[in-house]
């Protein structure tokens, strides 16, 4: 399983749900949670050009897996989003083990850090890790911290934490510290959020599987896995 990384630049997306656990309005973006029995719908005519551009893997995307895999899964998330944490912990391991490691799926994560300054800071830190070729290792470490913390916007995503995770994940701490202190990737994270808004993204997590949109997270959710299997059958 390969991790390809380079200094980033990309666009974003995110989902909607039914069981509303919390709502946070950030500009035109709404945080919603828990979608039960939501349909899996393909991206169609509205905003087709914008969606096509976003759903095509970009040269600077962080790709986990074989770049020639027949199925592309793009996940849009916020590191503080509890439902993104559930997806990371409960669903993504199966995707990685059964589909990414076997060369069937390539996985791409794109920022939609809209839950506040801590989310933005975490997004920037992950991009600084990407610059050293360790995006996925750092991405995973951030989610593990948030899963254990179980709270949003409580001041835990700090420079001290980011530096500790940099050391734990084997990054060059000096370069990493300079990167986060200078906000090297602030404009990237912001541009991804704006890109998501431009195509109607308004919640996290959202996944696209070969262009098929899966919004939100339901209890015992199998929609992403089902979409992957359907895409593989269509090859």
Task: Give a brief description.
The chain is an alpha+beta fold and 235 residues long.
Question: What can you see in these coordinates?
Answer:
- This protein is an alpha+beta fold and 235 residues long.
- It has one domain (6-233): Glutaredoxin (3-Layer(aba) Sandwich).
- Helices cover 42% and strands 14% of the residues.
- The chain is built from eight helices and nine strands.
- It has helices at residues 48-55, 82-100, 117-130, 135-149, 159-168, 173-181, 186-198, 223-233, and strands at 3-4, 25-26, 29-30, 41-42, 63-64, 71-77, 105-111, 206-209, 212-215.
- The strands form two sheets. It has a seven-stranded mixed beta sheet with strand order 1-5-7-6-8-9-4.
- Strand 2 (25-26) and strand 3 form a beta hairpin.
- The longest helix is centred in the middle third of the chain and has 19 residues, at 82-100.
- The model is unreliable at 5-31 and 33-46 (pLDDT under 50).
Search tags:
two-stranded antiparallel sheet, 235 residues, alpha+beta, 7-stranded mixed sheet, 9 strands, Glutaredoxin
Gross geometry = globular
Q: CATH topology, which one?
A: Glutaredoxin
Count up the domains: 1
> Distance between the terminal alpha carbons, to the nearest Å?
21 Å
Question: How many strand units?
Answer: 9
Alpha plus pi helix count: 8
Cross-sheet strand order for the largest sheet = 1-5-7-6-8-9-4
Find the CATH superfamily: Glutaredoxin
Bin the helical content.
40-55%
Summarize the main sheet: 7 strands, mixed
- Beta-strand proportion: 5-15%
Named at the architecture level, the CATH assignment is 3-Layer(aba) Sandwich
- CA radius of gyration is 16 Å
**Ranges with pLDDT <50 over ≥5 residues?**
5-31, 33-46
In CATH, what is the class?
Alpha Beta
Structural category: alpha+beta
Q: What is the residue-mean pLDDT, rounded to a whole number?
A: 79
**SSE succession:** EEEEHEEHEHHHHHEEH
């Amino acid at each position: 399983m390969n991790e390809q990384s380079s200094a980033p630049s990309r666009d974003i997306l995110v989902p909607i749900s039914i069981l509303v656990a919390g709502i946070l309005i950030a500009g035109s973006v709404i945080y919603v949670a828990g979608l039960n029995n939501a349909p899996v719908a393909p991206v169609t005519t509205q905003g087709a050009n914008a969606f096509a551009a976003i759903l095509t893997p970009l040269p600077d995307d962080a790709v986990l897996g074989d770049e020639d895999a027949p199925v592309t899964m793009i996940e849009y998330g916020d590191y503080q989003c509890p439902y993104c944490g559930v997806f990371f912990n409960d669903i993504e391991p199966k995707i990685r083990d059964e589909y990414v490691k076997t060369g069937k799926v390539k996985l791409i994560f794109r920022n939609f850090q809209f839950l506040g300054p801590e989310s933005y800071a975490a997004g920037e830190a992950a991009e600084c890790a990407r610059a050293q070729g360790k995006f996925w290792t750092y991405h995973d470490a951030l989610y593990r911290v948030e899963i254990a913390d179980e709270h949003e916007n409580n001041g835990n995503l700090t420079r001290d934490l980011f530096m500790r995770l940099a050391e734990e994940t084997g990054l060059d701490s000096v370069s990493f510290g300079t990167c986060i202190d200078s906000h090297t990737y602030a404009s990237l994270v912001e541009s991804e959020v704006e890109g998501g808004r431009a195509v109607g993204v308004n919640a996290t997590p959202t996944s696209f599987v070969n262009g098929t949109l899966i919004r939100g997270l339901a209890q015992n959710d199998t929609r992403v896995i089902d979409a992957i299997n359907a895409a593989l059958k269509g090859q």
